[in-house]
Amino acid sequence: MGQTYDRNAQDVGNIAHLEHVNVKVPSQQIATAFYVEGMGFTRDPYIMVGLQNMWINLGQQQFHLPTGGPHVLRGTIGLVVPDLEALTARLTAVKGALSGTAFDFAQENGHVMVTCPWGNRLRVHAPAPEFPFMKLGMPYVEFPVARGSAAGIGRFYQEGMGAPARMVEDASGTSARVCFGRGQTLIFRETSAPIADYDGHHVALYVVNFSGPHDWLAERGLVSEESDPWQYRFDKIVDPKSGEQLFQLEHEVRSLTHPMYLRPLCNRNPGQRQRGYIPGRDEFQPPLS
């Protein structure tokens, strides 16, 4: 008999894909300067191309940026870009355009911490083994939660959403990590600090078993919107044991039969310039290693 393998290591659970984070922005112009010029991402050329909303592509994930707010996500959005040095050069170049906003960035231990013009925190990494299959994208979103709540949040995703969740103790404390797709994670990290009020931002997830979580949520009165045949929403995370609300975050839950599931996203090469133009290099090309 040949070599044996841990087959459980490849299980991804019911949640197949984190597609986007949605935060409202007061200015599409400032958002363009930050997300497109500074971060080097790509405005989707096909959908939401007007002045009231903008979809920003990064790999197979997106930011959705409708006009309003602003929304400030409670936590940190983890990103991967192919070149941190090129990122910091772009961010330096847009400092003037973003003066007078909350925009800031700093190189830290192995990553770049970036604050968007309205206060959203982005932790930007280079490609690494802990982010398999990803050279450009959004591998995780991390949220601060109250002391003692992480275990119940983990149970919520396990029992309600059918997603593997594990408790982690590290130098930063206790967290529940909900795993899905190809190396994506929602992290709920316990803190003693006050938790900011929820302002309506949301995440979008695709699930394999679409009806099961819906039934589980509906039995508990947690479905907040019946959007269409392929989508519903909920915004309360509760402990399945007690029913106590532990956190609030709107989830846009979509089926794998949703027409937009794994829709191909255009990603440009932000290093391409008019001066020194290289034919055939307009599109993002992932590094080979």
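The record above closes out task 2.4. Task 2.5 opens with a second protein, given below.
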Amino acid sequence: MTINLSANVDLVQSLEAQIERIGAFIGNGLGISVAAVERAVEGVHSDDIAKVLQDRSIDSGLLTAAAEIKRVSAQIDVTIHVLGILRALPHILENGERIERVSLGAGNTGRAFDLETNLRIAEFKFIQWRGGPESIRQNGIFKDFFDLATAETSKRRCLYLLGTHHALKFFRGRRAMGSVLSKNLATRERFMRLHGERYATVDQYYADHEQVVEIIDLLPWLPELAALPIESPE
């Protein structure tokens, strides 16, 4: 694989310039800057608005900078997923443990789990939860737990999270199983084939399987991720 260092340098320099422009616009705080712009444009005649914007450097370049930063930042979640797994490996691997397969990119990569070694299978979630009715994230974490619990393996099954409080509260709660499985047809069908109507709520399923899957907090090893913004409920 050939890495175009010149292109990478150009990208970094371009982002630096764009961040500098956005930073200048934000100033001491976005709210303060927006309020100042609001005062500046109120009452301005159509003949004068272009000059007011020009005086404040509000032009196509500033909007382009904001759009480019948003485009690049859309890849940050995947980047955190990749780097978080890699940085966690020295902490979680045991002596003699050998990595067999990894799936570093978030989402469906065609591999069953984020990590498989000769000793364990593992899934990773790099999300800071606020708590409350976060049904989409709860559905996702249940799927990971269920996939680990039902895997045909004698290896350790590990679910790594940023903090375990909200996840355990969900697993020990009485959310209806039908609601948790309602958005993922494949998982629902597999769950019903295995268990039928045996489990009405999440806590019932978790009580029977909490010894099968280890739920492990990554924050003691990756304290820098404690600074991630807390996800708001959808």
